[in-house]
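Here we describe the complex-level prediction in full. Unlike the single-chain runs in Section 2.1, the two entities below were treated as one system.
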Amino acid sequence: MKTRRSIWLAMFLLVGVLLVFGASRSGGPLTQQDRIDAITLNLACPTCSGESIYVSRAPASESIRSEVARQVASGLRTDDEIVSYIEQRFGGQVLLVPRASGVDSLVWALPVAALIFSAFLLFTAFSKWRTNKPTSPTLEDEQIVAQALKNQAESESK
Amino acid sequence: MKIVSACVGVVVALLFLVLVVSEPDQDIVAKSPLLGQPAPSVASTTIDGEPFALERRKGSWVVLNFFNSTCVPCINEHDLLVEFAASELANANAAELYTIINDDSSDAVREFFTKNGGTWPKITDDNGTIAVAFGVARVPETWIIDPNGIVRLRITGELSAGLLTEQVNRLREEFVS
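The structure predicted for the assembly as a whole is:
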C-alpha cells in the first residue's frame, strides 16, 4: 500500500515538473511572420463568428492583419502590446484567449473550481458508501435469517 | 446535496431575474474605449492626392464618416451627409466632414460622389490603418472629434434624419472650445 502511494506521488510530481517546464520553456527566436501568425491566431475576426484573424478573409480581418504586420515590422511594440492595442480598439471580444486577470479570469478559475468541487463531492459520496457498507451481520440480521430458516424448515415438514 | 441544489436554483433564478429586469441598450452612442480620449494619430491622403493629418485639424470640430460605395446603409445615409455639410457652411464654428474610404477603390468613391454629390475630402485608407485605429469593423460609422482632438461620439450604423446635426450641436454647446 505504501509503495503504491509512493509511486502515485512520484508520478504526480513528475507530471507537475513537466507541466512547469513546458509552460515556462522559451520557444526560441521567432521570425516576424511567426510573430504575426501567433498574434493573429489569438485574435477573433470582429465581423464573423468563431474565426481567427489568421484564417479570416473578411475586410476587417485583413485590416487588422495588416496593422499587426505593420506594428511587428516597426519593432516598437511587443506581442502583448500589439494585442492590447487591438483589444483597446475593438473590445475584449476580439480576444480568442481571455486574459487571466480581472473578471475574465473567471473563465479560467470557474472550471478548475468546478472540477475541485466535483472531486470533493465524489470523494464524499464514495466515503459515505464505504462507511455504510456492512462488514458483518448484526445480531438482528442473524435472528432474521434464523427465523427465516426455521419457517422454511417448518413449511417443508408439513 | 440539498444545499447544492438550492444554490443552483438560486443562481438560475437570479439569471432569469437579470434577464427580465435589464433594459435593452437604446443609447445612440456606441461604446468605445476611445470616447473621451485623444483621437488616434492618423495620416493619409485624399483621393485627389492632398495630404491629410488628423492632428492638424485641431481647432475645428471634425466628423469622420467611414464609408464604402457598395454598402447599402452608406448609400442610404449619403443624402443626410450632404444636407449636414450644407447646413454646416452657415455655421461660424462649422464642423469639418471627412469620408474615410473603407475597403473600396478611389475610382469607385469618386464616381459615387460625382453622381450623388458631396464635395468634402475623401481620405484613402489602403491598409485599413485608420479603421483599425478607431476600431471600425463594419461601415458606416460616424465619429465626432472636438477641437482639442478628443473623441466625443461614435455612431455605428446608418444615420437617421437630423441625428448628426443634433449631436454636433449638442456637443458644441457642451464642450465650448
